[in-house]
Design brief:
It contains six helices and no strands.
Length: 144
């Protein structure tokens, strides 16, 4: 609904606070769940909320488009997979391709910031630095 501008900004703000809290509670309790969908959701909520704010400064811009760009940016930042995020957002939406440039810019910026903060993706974050180095050495080809 955020993609079609049918969600009130107050609801987006409320869900932006409650969704990460629910994800943390579920993961902390041992309930099986992923991190992929919550990343998309968090990005769409944040992007939709920022889209409403941006629409006040630049009328005519569809706020729902910001939800799509936000979802792609947060997905790329958490997984450290910018190309996969761009392709996935294009495939998931079936939308015309007019949003590719803003999506690529947002995804690239988000990935750059995320890699600057931590070199591990959300899937590698559970490993300690020493365990991560050990896993990388196991994957490295050995000289014969």
């Amino acid at each position: 609904m955020a993609f079609t501008n049918q969600v009130a900004p107050l609801l987006l703000l409320t869900l932006l606070v409650l969704k990460p809290a629910a994800t943390v509670l579920c993961l902390g309790s041992g309930v099986p769940g992923g991190l992929f969908t919550p990343s998309l959701t968090l990005g769409a909520l944040l992007g939709g909320l920022l889209g409403y704010a941006w629409a006040h400064f630049w009328p005519g811009v569809p706020p729902g488009l910001f939800a799509l760009i936000g979802a792609g940016a947060v997905l790329a930042a958490t997984t450290h997979g910018p190309i996969s995020a761009v392709v996935l957002m294009i495939e998931l939406t079936g939308h015309d391709r007019s949003f590719i440039l803003p999506l690529v810019l947002a995804v690239g910026s988000a990935t750059l910031v995320a890699r600057t903060i931590d070199r591990r993706s959300i899937y590698d974050a559970r490993f300690t630095d020493s365990k991560l180095i050990e896993l990388q050495q196991q994957r490295a080809p050995t000289a014969a």
